[in-house]
């Protein structure tokens, strides 16, 4: 990746996540376009570009970044509500990174190589990751449904769908660990999960629940390991 684009990304990360206090964010959400913090935030981004590049000759790039950043943040502040705040946060970041790539392309003829999208290996890796998310969750639910313990209204409630997303994350991590030849990390992940689960299961005093969790964990890890090894074997090399 070009050093110029990397510097633009670094300037953005510092400005948006290190030099933007929570009070500024709340002020923008409350006062919207009338917020002085909105414009101060944009000036910080412009100053950071000069600081990162140490070159005042880059003023056109800095000004372009500042104007586009102001437009994106202004739109976000106008349309943001409590319901869409999470979605707009990610949309905001996508637009910021997209604008940096666009400016890099215009001023420096930058080009992102996308030839890897036409490689068989890429699509095999994508298929492996996708299979370990929702398809595996559904398969496991069907397999171990008959062993699901009866619910106890007095037992502590967990976050909605937390178990499903924890399983997805652990399988994706195993996929990455194995394809990068870090098998020891798989053992560490299993050990860490066992430690966190041990206290809850010990307090529950429920043998069926313990066995159910153990079956689910081993099944999840087993599927992830098999899919990862198959993917590594088919692609012929590691990530």
From TrEMBL:
Keyword field: Membrane, Transmembrane, Transmembrane helix
Transmembrane segments: 36-52, 58-75, 87-108, 123-148, 168-192, 212-234
Keyword Membrane assigned: yes
Source taxon at top rank: Bacteria
Entries under InterPro entries matching the protein: Phage_phiKZ_Orf197
Pfam families per the UniProt record, alphabetical: DUF3307
Name by which UniProt lists this protein: DUF3307 domain-containing protein
């Amino acid at each position: 990746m070009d050093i110029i684009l990397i510097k633009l990304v670094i300037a953005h990360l510092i400005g948006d996540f290190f030099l933007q206090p929570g009070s500024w964010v709340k002020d923008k959400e409350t006062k919207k376009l009338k917020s002085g913090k909105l414009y101060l935030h944009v000036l910080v981004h412009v100053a950071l570009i000069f600081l990162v590049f140490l070159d005042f000759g880059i003023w056109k790039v800095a000004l372009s970044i500042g104007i586009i950043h102001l437009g994106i943040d202004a739109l976000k502040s106008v349309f943001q509500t409590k319901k869409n705040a999470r979605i707009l946060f990610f949309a905001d970041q996508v637009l910021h990174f997209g604008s940096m790539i666009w400016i890099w392309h215009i001023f420096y003829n930058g080009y992102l190589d996308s030839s890897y999208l036409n490689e068989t290996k890429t699509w095999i890796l994508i298929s492996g990751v996708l299979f370990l998310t929702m398809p595996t969750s559904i398969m496991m639910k069907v397999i171990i449904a008959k062993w699901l313990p009866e619910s106890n209204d007095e037992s502590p409630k967990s976050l909605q769908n937390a178990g499903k997303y924890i399983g997805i994350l652990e399988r994706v991590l195993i996929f990455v660990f194995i394809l990068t030849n870090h098998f020891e990390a798989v053992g560490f992940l299993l050990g860490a999960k066992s430690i966190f689960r041990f206290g809850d299961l010990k307090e529950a005093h429920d043998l069926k629940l313990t066995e159910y969790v153990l079956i689910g964990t081993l099944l999840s890890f087993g599927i992830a390991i098999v899919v990862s090894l198959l993917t590594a074997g088919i692609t012929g090399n590691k990530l």
